């Protein structure tokens, strides 16, 4: 190799380094409060077998996409908890009140969720609550993995995504 080739080799190395930096660049994408995130349960919960404070696992049913970026992947894990349970009894119908806590973003950070858009109130399943047509009066209720329902990003958040593969 001659000295006249050194500038070309240096330039090639510089281009490779610049390309690597560009591919590894990260983008901070805003995920606004109120963004819907569809989820389903991993295991069933019921008014006869669940208790207040019990946590449950959720799975993201559809990806959350903003500005063309997938911020929360379909299949991402998450967690919720049971706020209240009312088994069927004299004078009242069965219900389960749940709150969604978080799901994991593509960057591994927790994205905080709310069960009701713009509110801190729980989502109530039962004949007098959400998805009432799925339940029968006078019977305990069960919510299973087949029911997909929305959660909502609870506060403005930023998810970091990589620009390259």
Question: What report would you give on this structure?
Answer:
The protein contains 1 helix and 13 strands, in the order H-E-E-E-E-E-E-E-E-E-E-E-E-E. It is mainly β. It has a single domain (29-162), classed as Beta Barrel (Lipocalin). The strands form 4 sheets. It has a 6-stranded antiparallel barrel.
Produce a short descriptive summary.
With 165 residues, the chain is mainly beta.
Essential attributes:
mainly beta, Lipocalin, six-stranded antiparallel barrel, two-stranded antiparallel sheet
Give the H and E element order. HEEEEEEEEEEEEE
Radius of gyration: 23 Å
Helix content bin:
10-25%
How many structural units, i.e. domains?
1
Query: In DSSP terms, counting alpha (H) and pi (I) runs of 4 or more, how many helices?
Result: 1
The spatial strand order of the largest sheet comes to 2-4-7-8-9-12
> What is the first-to-last residue Cα distance?
35 Å
CATH uppermost class: Mainly Beta
Kindly report the average pLDDT value.
86
Instruction: Assign the CATH topology.
Output: Lipocalin
Strand residue content? 35-45%
Q: What overall geometry do the principal axes of the alpha carbons give?
A: elongated
